[in-house]
Write a structure and sequence with these properties.
alpha+beta, 17% helix, ten-stranded antiparallel beta sheet
Length: 331
């Protein structure tokens, strides 16, 4: 049974309540505004989350959210008026039970009834910068976390266990770091795009804003694009760089975004090539997707690399991977 058939069958059994609102009809405008008002409060969204898991009494909702019972009653009334929750009485005087109206579809229309779109939530994973599965570095290398330096100057220590706490990693000259994403995201739906986001810059002694480095990104062994970092930045402390960090060292980088869909590869929103797309990356093969960050030996600008994680640099993030999916339509 496909999604369309499931919805039709559920409607026939009255398992769903579908509200069709026409935005061109005055009598529907108030109803639409009630729904908008109901969804505009973080507390009311928390209440919906609670009720989505279990039917609850008003007093229990107040306790769990640490709010006054009168406030809970106020928010519940607004949600009830918007038809987003249901209220039942178990027979005991004054004891109402509230539950999430999980079958309510809200459709805004002008003329024809629109299609119902089923959107699969994106898959997002944050990869700590110290969780690389392979690496090769120069003798001028090191890493630190938010409290102290972990390693420095010895390529043989690049796989020390404490690397997993790293918030900044650096290596001069040619080098690479390779990461892995579990491949279960490929079975969630029909992929429309994948993307990687990370903060980085070149690596010079001390720092040097005019020190280019060609940094190549590969996915599953396929080179997708090369970003030229213009320099190694240390003229100021990064927004999240800890105060103990060395004054004459790298302190922040640039946020780089690599985005791939069926049309090609984009680097910082600019189309780089149409020759590589989602299909050519073989994302559904094996049990992982590899992501390699590399300064190649034959690069024009061999300026090393700094990779920033959470609590370091200007962007409070590790390497972020996101997979998005195509929506399916049912009439």
């Amino acid at each position: 049974m496909n999604k369309k058939e499931e919805i039709i069958q559920a409607i026939s059994k009255q398992e769903y309540l579908i509200n069709y609102f026409n935005i061109e009809k005055d009598e529907d405008v108030d109803k639409i505004c009630n729904i908008g008002r109901a969804l505009s409060s973080p507390i009311r969204l928390q209440i919906l989350s609670l009720l989505n898991r279990q039917q609850k009494k008003m007093i229990d909702i107040a306790k769990e959210l640490n709010i006054q019972p009168s406030s809970a009653a106020f928010h519940l009334q607004i949600l009830e008026e918007a038809n987003l929750i249901k209220v039942e009485n178990n027979g005991n005087k004054g004891t109402n039970y509230y539950s999430y109206n999980d079958g309510a579809f809200i459709l805004l229309q002008t003329r024809d009834i629109p299609k119902i779109k089923t959107q699969i939530p994106p898959f997002v994973i944050s990869i700590p910068i110290g969780d690389y599965i392979d690496a090769k570095v120069d003798k001028d290398c090191g890493m630190a976390n938010e409290t102290n330096q972990i390693m420095g100057g010895s390529p043989n220590n690049i796989f020390i266990p404490s690397r997993h706490s790293a918030k900044i990693i650096w290596s001069s000259n040619s080098c690479y770091f390779e990461y892995a994403i579990p491949n279960d995201y490929t079975s969630n739906g029909d992929l429309s795009s994948i993307s990687f986001s990370l903060e980085l810059c070149s690596e010079a002694r001390g720092y040097n804003p005019n020190f280019p480095s060609d940094i190549t990104f590969s996915i599953n062994g396929i080179e997708v694009c090369t970003y030229t970092s213009l320099g190694d930045y240390g003229d100021r402390y990064g927004t999240f760089t800890p105060e103990w960090w060395y004054t004459e060292s790298t302190k922040y980088g640039v946020l780089v975004n690599i985005y791939i869909n069926n049309n090609g590869v984009y680097l910082n929103e600019k189309l780089i090539t149409k020759k590589i797309n989602l299909k050519s990356l073989n994302l559904d093969k094996g049990n992982r997707t590899s992501f390699k960050i590399e300064v190649k030996k034959d690069a024009k600008n061999i300026g090393g690399i700094n990779i920033f994680g959470k609590k370091f640099g200007d962007f409070n993030q590790d390497i972020l991977f996101m997979a998005k999916y195509k929506s399916s339509d049912s009439e």
